């Protein structure tokens, strides 16, 4: 948009006066931020209404992306960027004597997700708007986001994240679009005048779902899409009907907290209520909106695509069936045809424990009508498939089995498309996790490799690098990130390579300043910044990284005079509060950090910093500063990964197993520009099939490994007698489920190679450049364009090949 500085300054001062009735000089950064947010929202309001109007006028097919998590990060800078007003606003703010960085930091970072799943949904929202596609988000407005992590005595402590305390500048409450979601009660069949039977659903516990909409601003276009998050409230008749305190609390609880766990199912009825709550509210509002512009529901699937991001929103399938049949008298077959043509599903994990299953009694008690519909889907599935495929395979894949509702199977059966998120992951879905369903529905399966919003992870997070790139190849890559490839022409340009070094140094300094002020640890910026940031999980193998730190520590202790390449090991990770093992790993890394950072023999050759409260905002600080990107999951376990892409585009070299999208990153950037190691997925499956992995044998055969692993139980690291033993036992007594010891030697070899290679600045920088240049292909813009073409069948404006 066009904006003059003088105009902005005038509007901003007015905004401050109107909102706070004080002079600018008497406002806090929080107030300055809120006023700026409101002003920008106002500046964009015309685009937002115009976008909705134009979709309606042109009867554009809409995509609704359902996700129980959205992790958008702070919106101020990305909205300014996308509107093209960054320079004007920054300058105006500066000339008013305000500190822009302080204003930026005053914005709470909405933690409405655990990690990669929620961040992917947010990147996709940004990309859909930016390529000019009618893509809406649908999720939950959690009153409290993912917990705030602090360390006390090295242990993780979880504090509530009261992110709405000062209000939310970007959202709009739309009470007039609220709808009722019904739980419990009874279903009975009522005879109609024509003799047919119709289900009546009554004595329900009703919850009012109120939508809060946030505009998702496209990049330098006039598109603004909508992210709709639902909040649970008392129904409007609350005055007449009596609600006990516990009934009120039950309603409140539905959207109170995000489940702080993205892999283990809590098996709790509250989680199921959350899932049905936002699925039902979302589908109701979609149907209502659709019918405001169409007479019949017959062509619904031509105008609406609903995407199920992981299994949590799977109940959109029976919910749409319910609305079509019970509220619009659609016969089953037509309703089923409309529903399956509308729905598509992304699977995000091969971890068995993350495939959601609900005990039938719980499901049926909470959602009796929905259960009847699932039962009928199940009955028809069996009747249709048993004659063709036999009873065994149909038993294994039916939506109901083992006394449970199996959400992933329901999602596959009720959708027309099922995708994995990287080529290896999709292959494993077809061969292993969903192999039976693949046999029955091979045509539904496809791959859509994850992507990231370059705008946030490069243009917002790494402004020095963005400026440097622009100075070399212009700005066209902002619209078409594959053009970053043009940078490879400058591989031999020593001046440019040196400028890249300077940029990295500047970013490392910024992080070092943060670490100094927040943690009191001094780190040197000429050290290798070796970064592992992601949820703490056994399969992601922070333990392998930890063993390498112990090895490096022992090595320096053994010969304090020997020359080493200085290193800083940087971690960021939250552990699910109930995940005992993960919390033990945090404790041990923190204890190890204490030992290493305070040992005079070590000095500044080796530092370990576990930065608390990892989230999108910290990612934006850490990623531009990274030299090494640790992507060391057990092969086959990380479906895609996206921090690998963010780090690549910021010039970090990957130290990676052949897992998830690492494989594609290595292929894109060239093997010689990354460090790969370890078992392949087929090696891992080989061990499973032969059942012959013995971690103890590896331990016995490698004296150096023994020394390192033994440090977990020798009191060398103070204060971890229980936690050290727990990890030690997981590696030896319990046979090392994630093959840490199997990969250890190969991993160490590559770490040593990195220490060597880092000394050759020019060669290193060329590799870094190769990573940046090849990273454009992982832009989420391309990912959503592929979804649009192959799955959703919706148009978009920006041409992306
Ligand atoms: C990108 C991102 C993730 C995903 O990281 P992976 O290493 O791919 O698991 C998790 N959390 C946040 C805050 C992110 O930005």
Automatic annotation (TrEMBL):
InterPro entries: Glycg_phsphrylas (IPR011833), Glyco_trans_35 (IPR000811). The keyword Zinc does not apply. It catalyses: [(1->4)-alpha-D-glucosyl](n) + phosphate = [(1->4)-alpha-D-glucosyl](n-1) + alpha-D-glucose 1-phosphate. The modification N6-(pyridoxal phosphate)lysine is found at residue 646. GO terms for molecular function: glycogen phosphorylase activity; pyridoxal phosphate binding. This is Alpha-1,4 glucan phosphorylase. Its cofactor is pyridoxal 5'-phosphate. Keywords: Allosteric enzyme, Carbohydrate metabolism, Glycosyltransferase, Pyridoxal phosphate, Transferase. The lineage of its organism: Bacteria, Bacillati, Bacillota, Bacilli, Lactobacillales. Its EC number is 2.4.1.1. It comes from Companilactobacillus heilongjiangensis. The keyword tRNA processing does not apply. Transmembrane segments: none annotated. NCBIfam families: P_ylase. Pfam families: Phosphorylase. Belongs to the glycogen phosphorylase family. It is an enzyme of class 2 (transferase). It comes from the Bacteria. GO terms for biological process: glycogen catabolic process. CDD domains: GT35_Glycogen_Phosphorylase. Phosphorylase is an important allosteric enzyme in carbohydrate metabolism. Enzymes from different sources differ in their regulatory mechanisms and in their natural substrates. However, all known phosphorylases share catalytic and structural properties. Allosteric enzyme that catalyzes the rate-limiting step in glycogen catabolism, the phosphorolytic cleavage of glycogen to produce glucose-1-phosphate, and plays a central role in maintaining cellular and organismal glucose homeostasis.
């Amino acid at each position: 948009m066009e904006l003059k500085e003088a105009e902005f300054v005038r509007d901003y001062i007015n905004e401050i006066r109107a909102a706070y009735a004080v002079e600018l000089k008497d406002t806090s950064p929080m107030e300055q931020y809120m006023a700026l947010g409101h002003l920008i929202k106002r500046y964009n309001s015309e685009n937002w209404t115009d976008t909705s109007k134009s979709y309606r006028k042109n009867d554009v097919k809409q995509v609704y992306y359902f996700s129980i998590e959205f992790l958008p990060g702070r919106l101020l800078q990305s909205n300014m960027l996308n509107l093209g007003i960054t320079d004007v606003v920054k300058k105006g703010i500066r000339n008013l004597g305000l500190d822009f960085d302080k204003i930026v930091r005053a914005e709470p970072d909405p933690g409405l997700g655990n990690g990669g799943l929620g961040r992917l949904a947010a990147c996709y929202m940004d990309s859909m708007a930016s390529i000019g596609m009618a893509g809406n988000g649908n999720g939950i407005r959690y009153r409290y986001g993912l917990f705030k992590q602090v360390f006390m005595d090295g242990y993780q402590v979880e504090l509530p994240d009261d992110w709405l305390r000062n209000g939310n500048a970007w959202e709009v409450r739309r009470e007039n679009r609220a709808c009722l979601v019904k739980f419990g009660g009874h279903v009975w069949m009522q005879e109609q005048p024509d003799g047919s039977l119709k289900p009546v659903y009554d004595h329900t516990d009703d919850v009012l779902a109120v939508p809060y909409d946030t505009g998702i601003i496209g990049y330098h276009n006039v598109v603004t899409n909508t992210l709709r998050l639902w909040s649970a409230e008392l129904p409007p008749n609350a005055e007449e009907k009596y609600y006990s305190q516990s009934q009120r609390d039950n309603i409140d609880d539905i959207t109170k907290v995000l489940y702080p766990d993205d892999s283990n199912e809590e098996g709790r009825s509250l989680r199921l209520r959350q899932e049905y709550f936002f699925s039902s509210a979302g589908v109701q509002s979609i149907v209502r909106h659709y019918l405001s512009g169409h007479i019949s529901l017959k062509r619904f699937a031509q105008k609406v695509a609903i995407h199920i991001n992981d299994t949590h929103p799977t109940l959109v399938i029976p919910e749409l069936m319910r609305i079509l049949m019970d509220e619009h008298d659609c016969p089953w077959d037509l309703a089923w045809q409309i529903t399956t043509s509308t729905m598509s599903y992304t699977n995000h994990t091969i971890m068995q424990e993350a495939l959601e299953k609900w005990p039938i009694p719980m499901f049926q008690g909470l959602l009796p009508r929905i259960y009847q519909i699932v039962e009928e889907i199940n009955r028809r599935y069996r009747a249709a498939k048993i004659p063709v495929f036999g009873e065994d395979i149909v038993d294994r894949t039916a939506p109901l089995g083992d006394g449970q509702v199996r959400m992933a199977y329901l999602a596959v059966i009720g959708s027309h498309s099922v995708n994995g998120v990287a080529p290896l992951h999709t292959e494993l879905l077809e061969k292993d996790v969903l192999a039976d369903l693949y046999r029955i529905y091979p045509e539904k399966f496809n791959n859509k490799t994850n992507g990231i919003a370059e705008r946030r992870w490069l243009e917002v997070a790494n402004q020095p690098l963005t400026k440097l790139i622009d100075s070399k190849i212009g700005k066209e890559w902002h619209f078409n990130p594959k053009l970053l490839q043009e940078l490879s022409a400058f591989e031999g340009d020593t001046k440019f390579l040196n400028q890249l070094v300077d940029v990295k140094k500047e970013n490392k300094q910024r992080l070092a300043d943060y670490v100094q002020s927040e943690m009191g640890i001094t780190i040197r910026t000429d050290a290798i910044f070796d970064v592992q940031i992601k949820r703490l999980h056994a399969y992601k193998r922070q333990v392998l990284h930890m063993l390498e730190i112990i090895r490096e520590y022992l090595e320096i202790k053994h010969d304090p005079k020997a020359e080493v390449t200085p290193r800083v090991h940087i971690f960021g990770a939250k552990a699910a509060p109930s995940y005992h093992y993960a919390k033990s790993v945090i404790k041990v890394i923190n204890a190890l950090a204490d030992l290493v950072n305070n040992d005079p023999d070590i000095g500044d050759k080796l530092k370990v910093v576990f930065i608390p409260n990892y989230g999108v905002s910290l990612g934006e600080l850490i990623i531009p500063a990274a030299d090494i990107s640790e992507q060391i999951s057990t092969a086959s376990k990380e479906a895609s990964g996206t921090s690998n892409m963010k780090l690549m585009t910021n010039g970090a070299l990957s130290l990676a197993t052949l897992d998830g999208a690492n494989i594609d990153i290595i292929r894109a950037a060239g093997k010689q520009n990354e460090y790969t190691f370890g078992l392949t997925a087929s090696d891992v499956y080989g061990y499973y099939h032969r059942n012959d992995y013995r971690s103890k044998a590896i331990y016995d055969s490698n004296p150096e490994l023994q020394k390192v692993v033994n440090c977990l139980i020798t009191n060398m690291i103070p204060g971890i007698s229980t936690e050290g033993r727990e990890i030690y036992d997981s590696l030896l007594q319990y046979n090392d489920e994630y093959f840490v010891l199997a990969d250890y030697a190969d991993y160490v070899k590559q770490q040593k190679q990195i220490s060597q290679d880092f000394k050759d600045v020019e060669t290193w920088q060329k590799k870094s450049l190769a990573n940046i240049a090849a990273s454009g292909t992982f832009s989420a813009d391309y990912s959503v364009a592929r979804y649009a073409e192959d799955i959703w069948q919706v148009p978009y404006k920006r041409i992306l090949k």
